[in-house]
Write a structure and sequence with these properties.
Elements lengths: L4 H14 L5 H17 L4 E7 L9 E6 L2 H16 L3 H7 L5 H13 L20 H7 L5 H6 L2
Antiparallel strand pairs: 1-2
Helix pairs in contact: 2-3, 2-5, 3-4
Length: 152
């Protein structure tokens, strides 16, 4: 019997109640960042197959590509720039994320509740000091010609 959408949220709601350090948006952003790393940036190495969600064909399987902690941090930097521009550091801080180590805490919280998985080689410390937020999210931010074309 397929799980209801509400049942999918229960572990996350419990996590937020037990550990209010990070807002739900932080967990959503990291989840989106993993998808961005795999699907848009093509990062990760092939791993075991995983069944698709119930809303997809139940009999189909897809390849899961493992993304390292450092790769995920770099993808999250790019996604933050893309979505929030110069406001990225401020937006992430409002969710409780102040360093790449916080990305690691969010990832390992998601692993603990079964929303992400880890390989035997993964360590929480893989996320520590990947980059300085001030440098990576503020000083290194640049508006590209593609972004300029989208502005009125």
């Amino acid at each position: 019997m397929p799980r209801s959408p509400g049942a999918e949220l229960v572990p996350l709601v419990k996590l937020l109640a037990e550990n209010p350090r990070y807002k739900i948006e932080a967990y959503q952003f990291v989840g989106a960042g993993l998808e961005y790393a795999q699907e848009v940036l093509g990062l990760g190495r092939a791993g075991p197959t995983k069944k698709r969600r119930a809303r997809e064909k139940e009999s189909a399987a897809r390849s899961v590509r493992h993304v390292s902690g450092q790769e995920l941090c770099r993808a999250l930097q790019q996604l933050a720039h893309r979505q929030y521009g110069l406001m990225a550091k401020l937006v992430l801080a409002s969710w409780g994320i102040h360093s790449t180590g916080d990305f690691g805490e969010v990832v390992y919280n998601l692993i603990r509740i079964g929303k992400m998985s880890q390989s035997n080689d993964d360590r929480r410390e893989d996320f520590d000091n990947v980059y300085d937020f001030e440098q990576a999210l503020v000083r290194d931010y640049a508006i590209t010609k593609e972004e300029e074309a989208c502005r009125p």
